[in-house]
Design goal:
Layout lengths: L1 E3 L6 H13 L5 E3 L18 H9 L5 E3 L7 H6 L8 E6 L2 E6 L17 E3 L6 E6 L2 E6 L12 E5 L3 E6 L4 E6 L4
Parallel strand pairs: 1-2, 2-3, 5-6, 6-8
Antiparallel strand pairs: 1-9, 4-5, 7-8, 9-10, 10-11
Length: about 180
């Protein structure tokens, strides 16, 4: 699985992430919100093209799991052929739950009900993280279009064992094993 968050309508950033999806042979694309709109607090990202982003993602609609971000709306859904307005969703991986959310409602400071050994994947902060905190995995792929905190654009990858945050040069920025809970 390839995890991306905070596209904010940047077509070149999405194209870079999708090249990595192909290279890593990740069949599922998990989008953790803020797909098309840059939002009123953010500057326009390079290559801002919401319609182009929607068209490119629509070609992969049957392999996308998407979550609503604070910048996503019903108008955005009209452009997308995959559901993107769920506030959260759950994946079951190796018998344990991973909550998918954007991070503005449920997130690191407001966790959903998680058992020890389960986890949360979120965006919103634009800060990459892959680590266990109090027996729960916290995973944020960072932002592919507008990273914060001096970070570079990044995405997440789950290979069936490890959750990794990777930059577009292929460097691993953070990693946590799902099986070592």
């Amino acid at each position: 699985m390839l995890f991306i968050a905070d596209i904010h309508g940047s077509l070149p950033a999405l194209e870079s992430a999708l090249r990595w999806q192909k290279k890593l042979q990740a069949s599922t694309l998990v989008i953790l919100g803020d797909v098309l709109n840059h939002g009123p607090r953010n500057p326009l990202p390079a290559g801002y093209d919401p319609q182009g982003v929607a068209a490119l993602l629509n070609q992969r609609a049957d392999n996308i799991i998407a979550i609503r971000g604070n910048c996503d709306s019903e108008v955005d859904q009209m452009l997308c052929d995959f559901p993107l307005l769920a506030e959260y969703n759950w994946l079951v991986l190796n018998g344990r739950r991973l909550c998918l959310t954007h991070g503005h409602l449920l997130g690191p400071n407001n966790l959903p009900p998680l058992k020890a050994g389960e986890g949360i994947a979120y965006g919103h902060t634009h800060l990459p993280i892959a680590q266990w905190q109090e027996d729960r995995l916290h995973f944020n792929p960072g932002s592919i279009s507008s990273p914060k905190g001096g970070n570079v654009p990044s995405f997440g990858h789950f290979d069936g064992n490890d959750f990794s945050v990777i930059d577009f040069d292929g460097n691993t920025l953070a990693s946590a094993s799902w099986n070592n809970a």
